[in-house]
Amino acid sequence: MRRQVQRESELTRLDAPFSVHSIAWKNASIVNVCDSELIGRTLVEGKLKMHISKDFFGGELVGEEEATKIIRESAMISLAGERSVNIALTNKLGSPQAVREIEGVPFLMIYKF
Fold first, then answer.
1. What are the tens digits of pLDDT across the range 23-50?
2. Which fold has domain 8-111?
3. What's the sign of the alpha-carbon dihedral 87, 93, 95, 99?
């Protein structure tokens, strides 16, 4: 019997579907969370252009449980991608009215005071 081997990119999406990157800014920390397969994509809609860069969103690859914990504990969060944004909405940490889309990819920024 042959065993099906998954490619590394498939394993990344299945086992760690979120990329988390923290940035220290002044006296605060900004956490960027995105669906890992979006890293490196450039989205264009009219005059609006958004590059989901490895420098801004690329970081530690984590599963949903860890991503949820990070989003709950952070004060400033930038989210990109359907799975990442849905974590915030499901946990009532963000408003559906605040979600914006570029080429069908949802984005959400959260600031907790």
1. 887 887 899 999 999 999 999 999 999 9
2. 3.30.1860
3. negative
Q: Where are the domains of the chain?
A: 8-111
| HEC sequence for 36-97 | HHHCCCEEEECCEEEECCHHHHCCEEECHHHHHHHHHHCCEEEEECHHHHHHHHHCCCCCHH
Long-range contacts of 101-106, Cβ-Cβ distance < 8 Å, separation of 24 or more: 102/43, 102/44, 102/45, 102/48, 102/50, 103/43, 103/44, 103/45, 105/38, 105/41, 105/43, 105/80, 105/81, 106/79, 106/80, 106/81, 106/82
> pTM value?
0.83
Q: How far apart are CA 111 and CA 113, in angstroms?
A: 7
CA distance 32 to 77: 6
Contact 71, 22 (CB under 8 A): no
